[in-house]
Amino acid sequence: MKRIIFPLLFFLLLFPSLAYSQLKIGYVDSKTIMEKLPEAQDAQQKLNELIQGWKTEINKLKAERKAKQQDYNRRQLIMTEQTRNQLKSEIKKLDTKIDNFREKKFGTNGELFQKQEELMKPVQNKVFNAIQDVAKEEDLDFVFDRSGSIMILYA
């Protein structure tokens, strides 16, 4: 019995407001907010345009690599050893160039991540500040985001 009473008393002393009043909790769906907010839509459109441009560039590099590979496969038997090695080297360089380009643009610290931070951070801050203002105005104790994993936006 003492094992139950002590933690209960400790909890009530730690959070005295819980002993006298009920919690006021709010929920928001930040995904829906971001989808409907014009600034977020503009930022997402800019990101999509960048991504499309980068994908086009990758497709060009892939087409160039495919053409070289086909050329190599067609002429392999009539080429000298030196020419064959040179074409193999060019194909490997193109593979490396494609991989490096992908990593530079779409990698964990790539340009896409940086642009996303640059374009979306101000919008996210605006939404977060609005949520805080409403939470203070409505005297809410907690505000949770229900769009993905449960996240506390305000406490």
How would you summarize this macromolecular structure in one to three sentences?
By secondary structure, the protein is mostly helical. The protein contains six helices and three strands; from the N terminus they run ααβααααββ. 2% of the residues are buried.
Describe this structure as you would to a colleague.
- The chain is mainly alpha-helical and 155 residues long.
- The chain has one domain (22-154).
- It contains six helices and three strands; from the N terminus they run ααβααααββ.
- 2% of the residues are buried.
- The mean pLDDT is 80.
Descriptive key words:
155 residues; 8% strand; rod-shaped; mainly alpha; 3 strands; 75% helix; three-stranded mixed beta sheet
Order of helices and strands: HHEHHHHEE
Overall tally of domains: 1
The main β sheet shows up as: 3 strands, mixed
Low-confidence stretches: none
Helix/strand-derived class? mainly alpha
Helix content: over 70%
The gross shape turns out to be: rod-shaped
Strand order of the largest sheet: 1-2-3
> Helical region count?
6
Q: How much strand content do the residues show?
A: 5-15%
Distance between the termini: 32 Å
What is the average per-residue confidence, as pLDDT, rounded to a whole number?
Answer: 80
- What Rg is obtained from the alpha carbons, in whole angstroms? 28 Å
Count of extended strands: 3
Q: What is the topology?
A:
Blueprint: H1 2-14, H2 16-20, E1 25-28, H3 30-36, H4 38-75, H5 81-106, H6 111-137, E2 142-145, E3 151-154
Parallel strand pairs: 1-2
Antiparallel strand pairs: 2-3
